[in-house]
Amino acid sequence: MKRKSKKGSKTVSQWKKLCWKVFSEWIRERDSVRLSPNGEREIYCFTCKNRISFKQAQAGHFQPGRFPVFLFDERQVNSQCFRCNINLKGNWPRYYERMVEEYGKDEVEKMIAQRNNFKQWKVNELEEIYLKYKSKLYELNEKEI
Length: 145
Prior knowledge:
two-stranded antiparallel sheet; alpha+beta; 5 helices; three-stranded antiparallel sheet; 5 strands; globular
């Protein structure tokens, strides 16, 4: 049973869902470009480089399993197509290659080493994450106007 700290307040689980919704939208917005003739946003999949529509894009994690320590790590979450993220379970070999291209082998190995770090989210941390990415999403959308 999940406890609520005050009547009407959200649980850690509820906050994580809210945070993931705004964070994943921000990731897709960050990675999107306007390429289609009708002005729709499109995205190049981080791993296979195929062009996909914004609506079809998913925010895929570099390290499988959505470890809490990097659940909301901007460097380790990128837009992916359904095929790479779901069917190929993240397309990890290609994801690894792309991460090395972006950050260098040493930095990527440091990211992987963090996998064993324990992280337990607290409501106040999640509230801050939610507000941070809500604001970043707003800023990205303002730049488009």
